Each structure stands twice: as C-alpha cells, then as structure tokens.
Known about the structure:
The protein has about 425 residues and is of the alpha/beta class. The protein has 13 helices and 16 strands. Strands 1, 2, 3, 4, 5, 6, 7, 8 and 9 form a nine-stranded mixed sheet that branches. Strands 14-13-10-11-12-15-16 form a seven-stranded mixed sheet, with helices on both faces. About 35% of the residues lie in helices and about 20% in strands. Magnesium ion binds near residues 181, 183 and 341.
Amino acid sequence: MPSVIAHYQEIALKGKNRAWFLQRLISNIQEMLEGIEGARVRTPMGRLEVKFGRDSDWPEVRARLSRVFGVANFSLAHRAPLDVEAIAEGIVQQLPEETVGSFRVTVRRADKQFPIPSPDIERAIGSRVQDARGWKVDLSHPAYVIWVEIVPGAAFYHFGKLPGPGGLPTGASGRVAVLLSGGIDSPVAAWRMMRRGCPATLIHFHSYPFLSRTSQDKARELAQVLTRFQLHSRLYLVPFGELQRQITVSVAGPLRVVVYRRMMMRIAERLARASKALALVTGDVVGQVASQTVENMSVISSATTMPILRPLIGMDKEEITAAAERLGTYAISIVPDEDCCTLFTPRHPATRARLPYIEGAERTLPIAEMVETAVANATVDHFRFPPRSDRQTAGRVPARGRGVSGPFDDRHLDEAK
Length: 417
Ligand code: ATP
Ligand code: MG
C-alpha cells in the first residue's frame, strides 16, 4: 500500500495548541480524501502518514492533498523496515531509469532511538546508489534528492516534495463572511482568509430580476471552486435590485455607490451574525475603483460595527490575477456579467464621500426596513466537497458540487460546519 508523507510547518509552532491543530488537520485530510479507497491518516513523529489503497488514483489523491490548508509539502513515499541495507535496497529498486546529473541522500532521523546517525546512513545509501548507477554525488547543488525519514518502527523514502498550500487547517481560526462578487478579487480574498484557517460563509448580492441570473451562476461556480478547499460552504444570494432602485429615487448619483456598499455591509453583518461569523471580508484594493479610495472605504466601514477585513488591500492587480489563475477562479470571474454594480450606477461616483452627506442622504431612506426585506428574501445554497452524489466513485475526479438551494432560514445554520 503506498503512503504519502506530509509535513506541516506552522502548526508545529503552536505550542500547547499543537495537538488541537494537528487533530483538525488530520480530520480535514480524512474528509478531503473521502471516497478514496483505504485512505487513513497516522502521525508518526512530527509528520503525517497518509495511506491509501493500491488501486487509488494517485493524481486525484495528489490534487486533493494540494488543497489541504496546513500541509506544507508532501511526497509519495515507500516504506522500508528499519535497516539501512533494506532501505538502500528499496531505493535502488525504485530509482528512475534515466541518468540524473548528480544526487544526494538526505536523511531525517526523527526517531533518535535508531542508533545510526543520519550522516552515516546518508553515506551508506549514497554509495549503494553510486555502485548501482554510477551517479555523481553533489551535496550542495544536487539535481536529484533521495529523502529518507526514520520514524519509530519504519523508514520512508521518497524522491521529491510536492508543495501543499501551507497556512492553517480550516476551522483553526474564526469564521468570516466574505462578500463575493462575480469579480476577480473577492474569490482570492476568500481563499486568503481560508488559508489562515477561517471557514468562509459566502454572500453574493444580485440584481435579478432587473438583470439576468448570470451573476448568481458565477457566484455558485466560484463557491464550488472555493469549496474544493474548505469542503463545506454556504452561499447566501441576496436580491439587491429593488433596494438599489429605491436608493436611486432619493440619493444623488455620485453618492450612490457608497450608499449601496453601506447597505451591503449592513445586510452582510446580519447574515454573518446568523452564521456565527466574526468579521466581514471584501476584495477591496486601495485605489482600484472609485469605491475603493481610503476615504470611501472609511465611510463604508462606518455602516457596521463588525470588523471588515480586506486581505488584498495592498496588492496589485497582476498579483491578484496570478493568484486567481492558480486558484482556478480566474476563468469564471472574467465571464462577462451584469452584477448589481452595473445597475443604476452613475458614470462618475464620488471618490471622496464625506460621512455627513452620506448620512444625510440615508435619512431619506427606510434603512432598517430595507435591510430586513433583503435578509428575509435571501436564499442559501449549500456546497460540499466531495459532492454527496460522488461518494461511491472512489478515486475518480468528482463532478463539481451541486448547491442545494432554499430560502434563507436559520434552521439551516447548524448543518454546515
Ligand atoms: P471584485 O473583483 O471582487 O468584484 P472589484 O475590483 O470589482 O472587486 P468592487 O466592485 O468595488 O471592486 O467591489 C469591492 C468589493 O465589494 C468586492 O471585492 C466584494 O467583496 C464586494 N462586492 C462588490 N459587489 C458585490 C456583490 N455583488 N456581491 C457581494 N459582494 C460584492
Ligand atoms: Mg466587482
């Protein structure tokens, strides 16, 4: 049975909470590998061993493990008995056919009970490899590295490390509510918070039936991609068109964008509290568009007492675009749509809104009632990875998760993690 040896970095540093973090990571890996035949996780001395069935689909296991937050790197490893000769023999059997430029053996002796020091093991295995293949040893710049890890009762060897996403295991930090537009930025903002261990509830404002359903479809697709990382997601779809229409009646054009955003914050705060989220998250970047000046962000923030986190605030568009491409949301985000930002939006919004003017404009509106109506009309979709219907198809790449749609109802809230 093949094994994966996975390493975690940051959670190793968490002192007294280490066992708790590790337990989260283990259960997240188990859940991520649901449907992979024989998948089991053990923790031999500061690393994780993930076992899975011989017939499992390694590319699928690899793809899934590369999305488990908290995993720093991982390798497909072979197991050998605790005997240098046996380890060397196993390695020689598994070496690639082609000649590599140079190599080295790197041994990590996690189990110090094993009596032979690492450099001695490295030399012994290195000379066996040289004899078998005639490869040149290069300790400082090897083209090929043979890794050996000694843990109690077994040795593992592997030939390369694959990167994990790093960060902290999902659930290790408090829940956040992400304002998810159909754009490029907010899915990246969601992913960055998720990577810090925050489960993310997703909230999308749409203008159906004033505009098409495209923005909702995009939000669902983005939620599916994000769910491939956090495994459970809830997406609130909030009708916003009627509210925008009401705002256009009494608020001057240049102030509207800020008033829309403040309404979004108030509604999002309500949904966030219902989901037990502790902060709101946006994809704002200083200076990217009119609503994202420091002045406007300050006025928008004052509509809620909940902290607003803006993880992309100092990033450039190119950096965010590259992150969206890696994450797999870019292709979805660039599909043209009409979201509520295109509805009733003036050509020249104010870039330096002042709070007294905004508050004056808002006094003409039944704010509490508008928030109430929007919250009452919100619907919620649930997403899960692996999708329920694909549970039995071990080792196959699952189809995208399907949301289960329904009106927003507090009774749903405890179902999702
Ligand atoms: P994005 O690419 O995330 O849409 P953007 O550069 O287009 O960002 P804005 O449209 O000003 O910028 O939106 C700023 C932030 O406000 C977004 O990142 C998102 O968090 C939130 N937001 C905007 N529109 C919506 C929406 N329709 N639903 C939910 N959140 C939204
Ligand atoms: Mg946008």
